[in-house]
Amino acid sequence: MAQTEKKGGLLRKSSASKKPLKEKVVLMYDEIFTTEDPSKCNPRFWEELFLMKVNLEYLEGKLEALDGEELMKIKDNINCLFQHCIQALGEEHPIRVVNALQTLCALIRGVHQKNKSTSGFDIINMLVGFDKAELCMKNLMESLDSLLCAEGSESLKSLCLKLLLCLVTVTDNISQNTILEYVMINSIFEAILQILSSPLSRREHGYDAVVLLALLVNYRKYESVNPYIVKLSIVDDEATLNGMGLVIAQALSEYNRQYKDKEEEHQSGFFSALTNMVGSMFIADADEKISVQTNEAILLALYEAVHLNRNFITVLAQSHPEMGLMTTPTSPVPMTPVTPLGTTPPSSDVISSADLPLDADVQTSNLLITFLKYSSIVMQDTKDEHRLHSGKLCLIILTCIAEDQYANAFLHDDNMNFRVNLHRMPMRHRKKAADKNLPCRPLVCAVLDLMVEFIVTHMMKEFPMDLYVRCIQIVHKLLCYQKKCRVRLHYTWRELWSALINLLKFLMSNETVLLAKHNIFTLALMVVNLFNMFITYGDTFLPTPSSYDELYYEIIRMHQNFDNLYSMVLRLSTNAGQWKEPASKVTHALVNIRAIINHFNPKIESYAAVNHISQLSEDQVLEVVRSNYDTLTLKLQDGLDQYERYSEQHKEAAFFKELVRSISINVRKNLAFNTLSQELLLKEFSTIS
Q: What InterPro entries does this protein map onto (predicted)?
């Protein structure tokens, strides 16, 4: 018997020269694409259609090939197909339901392609007709809700979520997607929560559910009341919130694991050996090759949870029992296309053991630690646009955390100590820190380490001013909490002071280049005011009196940088240029730092002269400082412990609009034909009762 080939809906006998035969389902599609009612000649047409295996490619291609005018001619048949799909969702036979769901995906995507054209017809009218839209969409959403909440097939639930993601991401800008009005009216919020609260459902569908929720929350969020925002903000069910946290932790942990694997693979390769031979000449180039796609979709979900729901803050510090286990997936993981935003879901609900500390006596990881590790990787390279957006979102999330009273309480809790192994950018002038030497400390130390690491490693020509401002604001907010609650944190404050002084030095050295693009005085003022916080209130939150002495020592030791900064801002504040006002603010802010320098420097010089010492040791300088505090006069500066709280709508709306747009595009790309494949579904429903 001659072999049969199948291509584009055609059946062709390879040994014959006869005209190719079309699949029956393709012939039925062709009938729909005429102006005649296909059920006139065959009353069982629609019943038979949903028993046929869907040819997604043919159906979508057929819709896309028509222009707007041609599509309008067959609008009645398209409406009829859409309505029969919705009716089929209520059928008992799962194969009919599967075929209806996939047909709806093809219809929505295919018709949307026409909506991009200049014909201007409305996608809702084309799919269901204005007169029936409300009832049809209500029935569709109720059917999807029932399928998601039912005890039945996990494959059906997966397909329902795929259809909903298809529906949500059909336009690049989801706020222009008018179909979502019906998703707002007929909420599936409770169904999403049910998935997240059930271990089995969460393992299978948690990723899609979390991404779907994050996108729905962003539909016209600044223009109208979005019920998903309202409902997410008041969720207080522990199992649901923990489930959401677990899905996010797993996705971020998977990213961290992939990065670590690539890093180890890179270091063990030939290039590593070559680098060792010739020194660290090529270290920057080597690091650039270690690249794992970032995952903004899951990061957006984390942001919305932290920003909207105060109860979610408790999830950040909670260790999940699954985190300590390592399981092998029982079935092979389906291959999914890689996209620039890494919206491919992780394969398991269980945190990889690679993300856990190596020592058996160390506590298991938690969502915040996993997020800090993720941030430390993403924030290394901000030259790439996706990583820049990811880095910015990481800092926005940390800003929300740093403002929250409860979050600060567990960040600073001495009874919650962890070893957090942050990734550090390879740099010529420093050795790689050994992981085993990391001390157990409160989590706020890891946050401060991350901020210091960013400050030190991003002083470059393409200066990320916005990220630096956010970074300094986070440090300031943490200090405000420490001052307010008199928390004496045992932290290596010198590293922070040194990083801040080097940042000021960088701003001065690159004044001309940076001023052409940025108002560097805003950042300089914030840095100077951090020092003012330590000077004015340091005795209430620095761990020991000697820490306060060390602060003065650092200011005196690096006095040349502060003198140079004062000269620069004085020069610009006495001119009538555009920088007069911002520069003069820095001039006024330097008053106490200059008072310290001018008070102690003569005393140190005098001590050296009297004792005939050419260069004083640190201990000798500290001795001079301690014995001359009494005669030092400082001015009280107002508002040092005050800050403007984070506001998304007024300052970040444009960023989130663009971010959600890019996520929508990439989620849509991930809903490729292979992710909607029927093979597994048909195996599951191989018999029709």
A: ARM-type_fold (IPR016024), ARMD3-like (IPR039868), ARMH3_C (IPR013636)
**Residue 164: CB partners within 8 Å, gap ≥ 6?**
144, 183, 188, 212
* Beta-bridge mates of residue 442: 417
Same domain, 535 and 615: yes
Long-range contacts from 232-239, C-beta under 8 angstroms, 24+ separation: 232/189, 232/304, 232/305, 232/308, 232/309, 233/308, 233/309, 234/309, 235/193, 235/309, 235/311, 235/312, 236/311, 237/193, 237/197, 239/197
Could you read off the pLDDT of 278-328 as tens digits, one per residue? 443 333 343 444 667 788 999 999 999 999 999 999 999 987 543 433 333
Q: Tokens standing for 87?
A: 């009716």
Q: How far apart are CA 400 and CA 527, in angstroms?
A: 20
Are 113 and 71 within one domain?
A: yes
The CA distance from 74 to 126, in Å, is 9
Q: How many domains does the chain have?
A: 2
Are 551 and 636 in the same domain? yes
Tell me, what's the pLDDT at 218? 96
**Statement to judge: residues 506 and 629 lie in one domain:** yes
- The answer on 624 and 554 residing in a single domain is yes
Predicted confidence at residue 56, as pLDDT, reads: 84
Shared-domain flag, residues 622 and 677: no
User: Using CA atoms, how far apart are residues 21 and 685, in angstroms rounded to an integer?
Assistant: 27
Helix pair 465-485, 520-541: axis angle to 10 deg:
20
Q: Do residues 582 and 522 make contact, with C-beta atoms less than 8 angstroms apart?
A: yes
Within-domain flag for 397: no
Q: What pLDDT, in 10s, does the model give residues 183-226?
A: 999 999 999 999 999 999 999 999 999 999 999 999 999 998 99
Residues 572 and 636 in one domain: yes
Give the whole-angstrom CA distance, residue 416 versus residue 507: 37
10: DSSP letter: E
DSSP per position, 315-345: HHTPPPGGGG-----SSPPPP----TT--PP
Residue 271 in this model has a pLDDT that exceeds 70: no
Specify the 3-state DSSP secondary structure of 381: coil
CB 214 within 8 A of CB 247: no
**What domain range is 38 assigned to?**
24-186+658-688
SS3 187: coil
Per-residue pLDDT at 3: 47
Find the CATH number of the domain harbouring 679: 1.25.10
Q: Do 679 and 613 share a structural domain?
A: no
User: Dihedrals φ, ψ of 686, to 5°?
Assistant: -70, -20
d(CA 234, CA 240): 12
Interhelix angle 580-589/559-573, rounded to 10 degrees, is 140
Distance CA(329)–CA(351), nearest Å, equals 12
Strand partners, 417: 442
Q: Which two tokens stand for residue 324?
A: 């300590």
Q: Are 629 and 137 in contact (CB under 8 A)?
A: no
Q: Structure tokens of 585?
A: 């603010």
Residue 225, classed as helix, strand or coil, is: coil
The residue with tokens 């005669």 is 631
Q: What is the pLDDT of residues 224-267, one digit of tens each?
A: 899 999 999 999 999 999 999 999 999 999 999 999 888 877 77
23, 80, 510, 673 from 26: Cα distances, Å: 5, 17, 66, 17
Of 201, 90, 200, the residue nearest 141 (C-alpha): 90
Show the tokens assigned to 359.
Answer: 């020592």
Take residue 527 and report the two structure tokens written for it: 């840095």
**β-strand partners of 6:** 11
What gap in Å lies between CA 564 and CA 502, rounded to an integer?
13
pLDDT of residue 439: 85
Q: Which of 590, 28, 669 is nearest to 293 (CA)?
A: 669
Strand locations in 500-613, DSSP E?
Answer: none
Determine the average pLDDT of the residues in 537-557.
95
